[in-house]
Amino acid sequence: MLVPPTIDDIRAAAQRIHGAVIRTPTLKSKALSEIVGADVWLKFENLQLTAAYKERGALNKLLQLTDEEKKRGVIAASAGNHAQGVAYHAKRLGIPAVIVMPQATPLVKITQTEEHGAKVVIHGIMFDDAYAKARELEAAEGYVFVHPFDDPQVIAGQGTIALEMLEDAPDIDTLCVPIGGGGLLSGVGTAARALKPQIALFGAQAQLYPSMKCAIEGCNLPLGGDTLAEGIAVKQPGELTSSMLQKLVDEVLLVPERALEQAVAMLVSIEKSVVEGAGAAGLAAMLTHKHKFAGRTVGTILCGGNIDTHLLANVLVRDLVRSGRIGRLHIEVEDRPGALALIAAQFEAAKVNIIEINHSRIFSRLPAKDAVVEVECEARDPGAIDHLITLLESVGFKVDRALLD
């Protein structure tokens, strides 16, 4: 039976990994504080060498292996960040490493794991499939399994984050921590409660994968789907972490995909910091459940920054669409000379830039003499596109605007 780590285990882990991981900054965000209605402090774990906190727990585990275990090599299952932490520090310590990753893992995480010297095996759709394969290879080949969250030594390593946060920002009275398998919040919660017994602890979990919420609250919610927060898309949380969090956590808050996208975009635009969906889950929870954090001094962990660049671009553009800065207009026109010029004149008058334009005569339900002009455009503010639509309608065009949910 696994024994939960104590504050002494976490302090020992901090000494053990000192100098081999980055002591990342904990900084207050004035802009996010105003938006959330609380004093918001951010722990920038996305600044680790592997761009994620996971290397803390991985290193603490690897440093306690026996010489015989190091010679056998290690194996891990991961959607990316744990994989890189294990691979990087295993290479540093001269330990052979095999990582099993699910098919949904972003290419950037697969590539970086291979660059750290590990052998990568792609298997299954989700983390749980990769986990089962890794356990199979462990039994067949004799590897030492390094669990991403359900291991006392890994949990202790993750808990070192709380020691640093509360040393840098001792006024923090609330923590809102991303949660998947539960290793991060188990370690951070153990340390935080030992240092400040009255501190409030919230978990932030993707709404599509409420596995830990159901495990500790006894609920039965739908599970599955494509989430931006693939790093915390865990169908089955750990047994040790579930039992620990049932005693530690005040509440697990669910966050919808739109809030995750909004949080990622805000961290780029406001903090100039690239954070993956899982890493932004704490901020997403604050934005979704503002009333729970109003007036508090809240700390959250930007626990990873490994997001595919193409996906990040999509998230940022979608945020511009939702904010009204980018629009797509469907304009019905009579197919006659001068119609496009008249449309363009309204764009100039409204000072809205045309990004892309498509003129369709065939694929339309309009009469044969009419056409549809689809225009993607960008404006300095939402009001400019509203003004543009008014101008277009004033000269006789019918306009529909495509919107995101």
UniProtKB/TrEMBL annotation:
It comes from Sphingomonas piscis. The keyword Lyase applies. InterPro entries: ACT-like_dom_sf, ACT_dom, ACT_ThrD-II-like, Ser/Thr_Dehydratase, Thr_deHydtase_catblc, TrpB-like_PALP, TrpB-like_PALP_sf. It is an enzyme of class 4 (lyase). Its cofactor is pyridoxal 5'-phosphate. Gene3D superfamilies: 3.40.50.1100. Keywords: Lyase, Pyridoxal phosphate. It comes from the Bacteria. The keyword Lyase applies. PROSITE patterns: ACT. It catalyses: L-serine = pyruvate + NH4(+). Residues 328-405 form the ACT domain. Its EC number is 4.3.1.19. Belongs to the serine/threonine dehydratase family. One of its GO terms (molecular function) is pyridoxal phosphate binding. One of its GO terms (biological process) is isoleucine biosynthetic process. This is Threonine ammonia-lyase.
